[in-house]
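Class, carefully examine what follows:
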Amino acid sequence: MARGRSAHYDDQRELILERAAHLFARQGYSGTSMNQVAEACGLSKPALYHYFRDKYALLVHIAEEHVSRLQELVEEVDTLQLAPEPRLRLLIERFVLEYARARDAHRVLTEDVRFLTEEDQARILGTERSVVGHFASAIGQQWPHIGTARLTKPTTMLLFGMINWMFTWLRPEGSLTHEDLAPMVADLFFGGVPAMRAPAHLQEPERQD
């Protein structure tokens, strides 16, 4: 008869992923050993292997669970069926706050995705592209002229450029929190996009050959 999981299995698993993400974010994936992960979790190395077969499995789970949570966020917002402006504002604010909660996992996804196999990278980045697509859809609904000028994707990536790299400069001990910045990012984006002008060659109608 197979031995069942302990009542605390899931909690322990989440703790391991959290501690591993913290080490990967601070030292890099290649600079972190399973011994260090085990020590950070207060486990023996054999006990750690009871949860994850190797360091690579930790990386996959950290990245996959992070993008899956982002996918859940956009789906939660979409179910609210908001008008274009509040929908996009809520998406921006939810993502800024999620990045604050999952700062280490986000940094791992941003910097260590290159260590994934092609298959795992394709699956995880596929989910990430789906998330970006939700934002692009929201931006296109808010500013239809952006789509007409073929600027929906570049505008979307400019937005992610603002929020994806906040972890590189925003310090927890600073005077501004992610809660402070979330509406500021939305205000900046909403104030700036209407002032954008498409390059001249994109203002011309597309040729129909």
Summary: Residues 56-194 form a domain with the Tetracycline Repressor; domain 2 fold (CATH 1.10.357.10). The radius of gyration is 20 Å.
